[in-house]
Amino acid sequence: MCVISCKKEVKNxxxxxxxxxxxxxxxxxxxxxxTFEYPADWTQQSKHNxxxxxxxxEKYLARENxxxxxxxxxxxxNTAYLFSLFRYPIKETKTYNASLSVIAENVSxxxxxxxxxxxxFNSKELLKQTPAQYQFEDNIDTKAIDGETFDIMRAKATxxxxxxQQEFYCVVxxxxxxxxxxxxxxxxxxxxxxxxxxSIKLD
Length: 203
What we know:
With 203 residues, the protein is an alpha+beta fold. 27% of the residues lie in helices and 35% in strands. It has four helices and twelve strands. Strands 4, 5, 6, 7, 8, 9, 10 and 11 form an eight-stranded antiparallel beta sheet that branches.
């Protein structure tokens, strides 16, 4: 539920698309020239677990909003969930589980999306339709990360009993929007997630 495709048309990923790999608490992706490190005591999710989580979110939104469920289903064709990280193992926590998601979406057929803020604007409008009661900050900030300018959208959302802070960092790179989505409820979690962002290297 933390990201929604900003397009309704279907576009397949390239056949040789590289989802990247994880080794020694480091994620690397030659396709995007991307590497970053993450804490050893956080839990990285397998592709199988990522799919299970996104399928659960899709079913929830489809139940709440038939149109939104259809959009999410279509987005799976052109959206690649590259990496997912949680503070605690999913089945072992009874509190909100802070997380980082890295998601790429093919925007090569959408000429009006030239940079991250264009993608975030479209995502914002769709997120407003979800049951999470999103409240967005008015301004979109920017941050230089290893020579690339990321646009940043910040929001508050309600997930059950939890008031969650989310930050969406986005850059358009090699025909894809590349998004880092941070979700947390306190400053300790925020600091840990920002430390991951600060380790990003882009070739």
